[in-house]
Amino acid sequence: MSSTLSRRGGGKIRAPRRGLNGADVDFQTTWIVLETAFKEIHTKNASALSFEELYRNAYKLVLKKQGEELYKKVAEFEEQWLGSNVREEIVQTLSAPLMLTEGTGRTLATANERRQAGEKFLKRLKQSWEDHQVCMGMLTDVLMYMDRVYCADHRQPSIFAKSMGLFRDQILRTPVNANQSNLLEVLTRIILDQIQMERDGESIDPFLIKSNVYMLEGLYESDQEAEDEKLYLRSFEHDFLVRSAEFYREEGARLLKESDAGTYCRHAKRRIDEENDRCRSTLTEGTSPKIQRVVENELIRNKMKGLIEMDSGVAFMVDNDKLHELNLVFDLEARVDPKKPELTRAMQKIITEMGTNINNAAIAASEAQQAQAEPQPTEDQAEDGKAKPAPKPLNQQTAAALKWVEEILTLKDRFDNICRESFKTDQTIDQTLSTAINRSMADVINAFPRGSEYISLFIDNNMKSTVKDKTEAEVDKILEKAIVVLRYLQDKDMFEMYYKKHLCKRLLLKKSVSVDVEKQMITRMKVELGNSFTLKFEAMFKDMTLSEELSNGFKKHLAGVADAQDTKGIELSIKVLTSMTWPLEAFRSGHDGDGDAPKPQVIYPPTIRKVKDGFQRYYSQKHSGRKLTWQNNMGDVSIKARFPKSQTPVIDVECSTYAMLILLLFEDLPIDVTLSLEEIEAQTNIPLDDLKRNLQSLAVAPKTRFLVKQPMSREINPGDQFKYNQNYKPQFRRVRVGVVSAGNRVEGDKERKETEKKNNDNRNFQIEAAIVRIMKQRKELPHAQLLTETLTQLSQLFKPDVNMIKKRIEGLIEREYLERIEEAPVPSYRYLA
């Protein structure tokens, strides 16, 4: 209508000629003409009107200073027209389904009845609003001069803006009937009801609602037309958000009771997407972040704790590897809090519970096996045709140690996979959760009292067997596993002690599968923990290399010595070990007593003693001033022996040095002559406990029963007699006599206490060294700052106790390395050069 009527005459409305200024203008007559034309416009009968003539009439009135009266008349006309005609048409569409309510804003009619009645009302209101805008557009063209002159000079709103305000007041704000809602409240209720129907799965007309929303966005609370005073914001949006919050609060509580966690997550995500789509298609995009915040608060923020703790919640998802559903939980909480506190706490709790179960199972297994442990013969092979006996308790304890590490690694791998698959943002693993999971893993590992020892045993087992016949990539994977679990360990100094013991045995007993892999492991430790951590490990390998060179040099030396003919056939392989580097106590058993007590000199046969003395002279010539201490209990021997009933004339017997000394006693004795335990001890000077264990291997173990024991029993007791077993029939050309305590195993309680005591002594030295380094650099320092810097320096190796640091400070003061600064305002110390 506006397109054809407003441009009638084929162009712009031209301003009147100046000659009109002197003409008399009768306001009432002119107004009747304008009023009649306005009625025609509002009734859509404006095709015959001359808009140029109408413009001239309005122009003349304004020109004759009658703009104010014209403005009032137009406003009164629009007010009367809206109130009498337009409003009546809209009110007639308000049928019973829209007006009969139950007191909660929702009508008593069925959903279909409400939808149809609501659409009828919305269509009428939409049409009235659009007609009003079209008509006022045409009136604005007619009254253009009034807007430009009178309204601008007198600071009145334009006639178009005035008419919008009249529409607001006469249509929307006027009550339908006495004591009833106005049309704005009815409109809000109908739109909210339509939206609720859509949430319940019914179809509505989004375009129809959006048209009415446009109307609310075009109207303002006051004539000032401030952006924050739009009726949409002030009247509708607030009610929409409040009603939505109530709906989602109730829905969330219901879903927590009725559905599983995965379904809840999917539903919440769908609701957020639905509301965003609704804002684009039905309301306005400016409401999108606000309604999204409402849904997130009611379905996520306020329900996240309950969602996580559901029977089908995060613990269930972790147990059943429901990684996609975990990702849904992660995405939901990430929407409301980037730190994800509830999910973080839940994951830490799950890791702690799983890790505690692993720790408790390992402790229970260790205690049960220690309680069952009894003295066992050293030979662990069964006789031919018989089943092997059950594993020894010590072996079972070692297996339990390896199982603990494997389970910890499995736990770590499991949660690493969860982080990769479920806790990612833009293809990047979430650092908050990853850090929290790593912290919990560290807490689990450090809560286990034997963690350092078990990790070292795990590496020991891999170095002795697992890396055999593996590819380079597989070896790297095994080494990385060890580093991963070591990375979490807090008491790395304790691990260093155990690793030295286990490495010592692997090197000296030739148990390591690959020296290169051993060195790779040490290189990885150096990268992870620093050069100082691996110094002694590297020194042990250096000793092994130098020892090999010494052995080869001694062989060449013997070849050129004239009096070496009587030792021909005896080959000596020597390992010269630096006493401060090698933990030789690793070869002591739990019965050896004080490892620092002087050991008796073992009596060697003359031929062997000659070789031993010859090497000692050779070494003294090479390294004057150094003293060699022979560790007899650590040696092993390969000797050739003949047995009457053997199928081969000569067999090789591999045994300990002590076992060799015992066997050589019977070499020149008549077959029936016996030696007692006391006689063997006197002739060899072997410590009694070592003697008993070696006699068990030689006279009790079925596969290596070279001697006959009288009386026959598992235990070696005073007075027992031994003689050569002429009926021994070896099954193979090579026989290995079991070496007591040769393998690495879990320490007993007594051994562990000794290790802890030694480690605490080492810690005292390290704490003092750290304090001296700090004070030497800083000269003077307050007590609190000295504690902090000392803790920081030592944190890479262990977490020292504060009381231990205080005692070391007192010790350094007594030895005059430090002194207290009496005049200092806070307790402070000064370094004494």
TrEMBL record:
Residues 450-699 form the Cullin family profile domain. Residues 366-394 are annotated as: Disordered. Keywords: Isopeptide bond, Ubl conjugation. It comes from the Eukaryota. Residues 366-379 have a biased composition (Low complexity). GO terms for biological process: ubiquitin-dependent protein catabolic process. GO terms for molecular function: ubiquitin protein ligase binding. SMART domains: CULLIN, Cullin_Nedd8. The keyword Kinase does not apply. The keyword Transmembrane helix does not apply. Belongs to the cullin family. This is Cullin family profile domain-containing protein. It comes from Meristemomyces frigidus.
